């Protein structure tokens, strides 16, 4: 086994194939400039969604997927995929800007709370009256003297 690995390594070094496996460095300028183009298209699309007032997620899902495809494509083309979490930084900024309201719990209106609680309160108040009327109801048995 060791001899086989050594022989394969020797062939790669001798033929120059080992140099072809060197990964080029990340072209940060290429990545940043092209991702800015991807982001500008995404920003124009999301600006109309009213993201300042509520979570825009269902409406911008298609545009978000296009942004992800674009950013991943440029990360691959510029050899920056997996280097320094550049792609993660881009999407972290996008989420902080446009999706900050997503997932926040908002209290329901007061009328909804009252409509949910009122039947329980009413049942609790009327239960003693129902129990009292059931236990004090007199049923005369046939054949009793009725004294």
Number of strands: 0
Task: Report the sheet-strand fraction.
Answer: under 5%
- What kind of sheet is the major sheet? none
Helical proportion, percent range: 55-70%
Could you say which overall geometry the principal axes of the C-alpha atoms support? elongated
Note the total helix count.
Answer: 6
Give the N-terminus to C-terminus distance in angstroms: 109 Å
Mean pLDDT across all amino acids: 81
Low-confidence stretches: none
User: What is the string of helix and strand elements?
Assistant: HHHHHH
Oligomer: single chain
What is the CA-based Rg, rounded? 35 Å
Structural class: mainly alpha
Structure description:
By secondary structure, the chain is an all-alpha fold. Helices cover 66% and strands 0% of the residues. It contains six helices and no strands.
List keywords for this structure.
single chain; 147 residues; mainly alpha; 6 helices; 66% helix; 0% strand; elongated
Please outline the helices and strands.
Layout: H1 2-15, H2 17-20, H3 28-46, H4 57-77, H5 86-98, H6 110-135
């Amino acid at each position: 086994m060791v001899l086989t690995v050594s022989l394969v390594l020797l062939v790669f070094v001798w033929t120059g194939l080992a140099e072809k496996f060197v990964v080029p460095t990340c072209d940060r300028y290429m990545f940043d400039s092209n991702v800015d183009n991807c982001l500008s298209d995404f920003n124009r699309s999301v600006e109309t969604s009213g993201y300042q007032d509520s979570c825009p997620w269902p409406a911008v899902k298609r545009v978000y997927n296009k942004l992800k495809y674009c950013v991943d494509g440029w990360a691959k083309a510029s050899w920056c995929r997996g280097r320094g979490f550049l792609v993660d930084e881009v999407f972290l900024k996008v989420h902080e800007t446009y999706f900050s309201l997503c997932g926040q719990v908002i209290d329901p209106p007061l009328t909804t709370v009252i409509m949910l609680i009122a039947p329980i309160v009413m049942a609790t108040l009327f239960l003693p009256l129902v129990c009292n009327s059931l236990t004090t109801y007199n049923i005369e048995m046939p054949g009793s003297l009725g004294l």
